[in-house]
Amino acid sequence: MDSTLVERGGGLVTVIFNRPEKKNALDGTNWADLDRILTEVARNPADRALLLTGAGGNFSSGADLTGGAGTGGGAGEAGGLSGPRQAILHEMRTAGDIVNRLHRLPKPTIAAVDGVAVGVSLGLVLACDLVVASDRARFCEVFARRGLSLDGGTSWSLPRQIGLRRAKQMALFGDWVSAPDALAWGLVNEVVPADELPKVAAAWGRRLAAGPTTALSLIKRLLDASDSTTFERAVEDEARAQHIAYTTKDAREGFRAFAERREPRFTGV
């Protein structure tokens, strides 16, 4: 059985962690698959949006620790993220690079979370642009309960998305956060009934995949940079981004659609 499934349709790439017997705990194979998929999506113009989710009623229980105390555990002696097991420093740098590539992917991304999202898998969730969760979803920064520090980029993404006080509450206690609290705190965009999650997430994904891909990429970059720039720099970056967007066929289609009073049909170029 493949531990990571990939489905493609209408420009949407759906990545499914597929180890339901372990609540989709991430092993070295999952990380290698995600590494490969992110490269493919970044380079393939037909791939216009990415949806990340899990099989069997859970997103992921985090790192598979059954093979040891490393993020790449669960694959035996050769259980590292990029071959034979390395020192934790190098394993974590490899994992961090993959999470960062998800965060920096020049195409819109969605995480669909059912069940649990724990530890490093919560880092993958927070690296996505949008998060839709089921009403039974639960989130946990489990590290302190294992005697560990943070990883998965959550030391950056968590306080940025829910504020420093809430981030410290999650990280220092390691308590579970329910879907309603996650919505109230700003950890997720929407909460829907569990049986509606696949339909809603796919609909969001299809909307993004049908959008003006270059413009969405520029919007994503501008918003991600918003906390580390000045207003003056932001408006200058907007001017440059708008100049680029104006050169695309999608922009011309957008103007035509407005003039003809119809919905635009973007092609991503």
UniProtKB/TrEMBL annotation:
Q: Which InterPro entries match?
A: ClpP/crotonase-like_dom_sf, Enoyl-CoA_hydra/iso, Enoyl-CoA_hydra_C
**Molecular function terms, GO-annotated:** catalytic activity
Q: Which domain of life is it from?
A: Bacteria
Q: Name one Pfam family in it.
A: ECH_1
Show which residues constitute the signal peptide.
none
- Give the family, as the similarity comment puts it: Belongs to the enoyl-CoA hydratase/isomerase family.
Mind telling me what this protein is named? Enoyl-CoA hydratase
Please spell out the taxonomic lineage of the organism that makes this protein.
Answer: Bacteria, Bacillati, Actinomycetota, Actinomycetes, Frankiales
